[in-house]
């Protein structure tokens, strides 16, 4: 079936090249900076064989309930962040179904509030091969969506999220066929994903068949381990080429729940990455649709649901940096805020590895270990005036048979001193990593496994 659709799409290529070139001119190079948005995501990362359901919604919700919830979410994204765009997932198991009758309310509520909405197809969790799962079902899905929202000037259509299974030529052909099938939709409301994991727009940007469309780019800090903004700028720039004026970065994000200070750019992978991302977007007038605005269980989520049902921001410095990338303000956020110190690594002398909270856990009682130094927020510690050592800005190192993280109490088991001998000492002993992995409290001996360097990485 996939071979058949590729052949059909390629067959449509020649006719659309002629008709499409006459129909649409390239957008003037003013940029896409009016897309200031967030992704509202299913807790499963939008990959699902069944219906996609953004966090906070349920398939049991009727249209009115979804509309009320979405209105609250969109309003909070606007008030908290300054967002005006919402990106939502769709799939054939959602569109044209009983859930679709309710899910449409999220689109309707957002557009009624004046937001732009980007609808993007996600493949099922059973494949994840970067190819359309079932072309017939995919076409029927888009036929339904375009029939209902093709005349709504605030709704944009992205044929597929992260089409990494296609070659450039095949992906251009898929989009050419999509344009031909939905010819009444202006090209300026069609968003063509970059090749690979949406990670490069230069190929689709250069394709004459796709002239006049918008482009989308994804860019993440876990793709590399650089801790300097300059390195991330060098990584990002070639992915955009000369097509920034057409490109929306419709997925990009970093940990927002672990206490990182995004005003401190160099020295940490996530903060350096985010600084480069926002600087590039601002300089090239590119829109950013942050991943995710809300997704339950995701440390990247820039908001969470408060006790009153409204959204609260998870990182003041992260929000400030994102808003800078969106074009707000005249002065870039800096590391001058003492309430959000950048933290520093603790490098074990014997192993050359860093004190680490496994898996970015925030659960009290999680035992610390050693891991390769990577500049992550789970390896970033602050020495507080009350004698505690904090990670994520809210968890304290706690002495015991294992050294763990826990709610800060200021008790004796959370009091630490960095000694002249470069030990991390508690009244009950010293921080020790005797096997190069597990971190324990042991009698102070001055052994290399008990000595640490602060603020340095090998």
From TrEMBL:
Domain Ricin B lectin: start-end pairs: 341-455
SMART domains registered for this protein in UniProt: RICIN
Assigned protein family: Belongs to the glycosyl hydrolase 5 (cellulase A) family.
Keyword Hydrolase (UniProt): yes
Residues making up the signal peptide according to the UniProt record: 1-24
Alphabetized UniProt keyword annotations: Glycosidase, Hydrolase, Signal
Statement: the UniProt record of this protein carries the keyword Hydrolase: yes
Organism of derivation: Paractinoplanes durhamensis
Lineage top rank: taxon: Bacteria
Protein name, per record: Ricin B lectin domain-containing protein
Stretches that traverse the bilayer: none
InterPro entries: GH, Glyco_hydro_5, Ricin_B-like_lectins, Ricin_B_lectin
């Amino acid at each position: 079936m996939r071979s058949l659709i590729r052949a059909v799409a390629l067959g449509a290529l020649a006719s659309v090249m002629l008709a499409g070139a006459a129909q649409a001119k390239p957008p003037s190079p003013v940029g896409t900076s009016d897309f200031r948005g967030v992704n509202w995501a299913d807790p499963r990362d939008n990959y699902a064989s069944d219906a996609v359901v953004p966090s906070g919604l349920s398939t049991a919700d009727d249209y009115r309930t979804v509309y009320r919830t979405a209105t609250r979410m969109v309003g909070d994204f606007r008030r908290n962040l300054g967002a005006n765009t919402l990106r939502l997932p769709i799939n054939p198991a959602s569109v044209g179904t009983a859930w679709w009758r309710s899910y449409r309310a999220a689109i309707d509520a957002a557009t009624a509030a004046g937001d732009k909405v980007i609808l993007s197809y996600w493949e099922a969790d059973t494949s994840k091969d970067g190819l359309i799962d079932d072309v017939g079902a995919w076409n029927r899905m888009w036929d339904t969506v375009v029939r209902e929202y093709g005349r709504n000037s605030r709704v944009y259509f992205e044929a597929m999220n992260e089409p990494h299974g296609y070659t450039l030529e095949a992906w251009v052909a898929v989009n050419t066929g999509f344009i031909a099938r939905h010819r009444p939709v202006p090209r300026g409301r069609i968003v063509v994903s970059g090749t690979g994991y949406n990670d490069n727009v230069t190929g689709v940007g250069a394709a004459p068949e796709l002239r006049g469309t918008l482009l989308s780019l994804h860019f993440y800090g876990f793709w590399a381990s650089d801790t300097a903004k300059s390195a991330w700028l060098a990584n990002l720039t070639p992915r955009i080429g000369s097509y920034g004026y057409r490109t929306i970065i419709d997925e990009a994000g970093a940990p927002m729940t672990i206490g990182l200070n995004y005003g401190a750019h160099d020295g940490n992978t996530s903060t350096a990455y985010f600084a480069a991302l926002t600087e590039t977007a601002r300089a090239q007038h590119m829109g950013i649709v942050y991943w995710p605005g809300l997704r339950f269980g995701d440390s990247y989520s820039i908001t969470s649901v408060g006790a009153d049902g409204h959204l609260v921001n998870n990182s003041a410095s992260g929000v400030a940096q994102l808003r800078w990338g969106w074009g707000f303000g005249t002065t870039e956020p800096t590391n001058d805020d003492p309430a959000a110190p950048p933290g520093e690594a603790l490098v074990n002398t014997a192993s050359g590895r860093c004190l680490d909270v496994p898996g970015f856990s925030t659960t009290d009682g999680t035992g610390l270990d050693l891991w390769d130094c990577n500049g992550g927020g789970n390896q970033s510690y602050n020495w507080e005036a009350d004698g505690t050592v904090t990670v994520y800005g809210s968890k304290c190192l706690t002495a015991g048979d294992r050294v763990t993280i826990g709610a800060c109490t200021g008790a004796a088991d959370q009091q630490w001193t960095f000694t002249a001998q470069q030990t991390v000492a508690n009244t009950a002993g010293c921080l020790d990593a005797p096997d190069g992995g597990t971190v324990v409290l042991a009698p102070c001996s001055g052994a290399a496994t008990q000595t640490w360097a602060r603020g340095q990485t090998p």
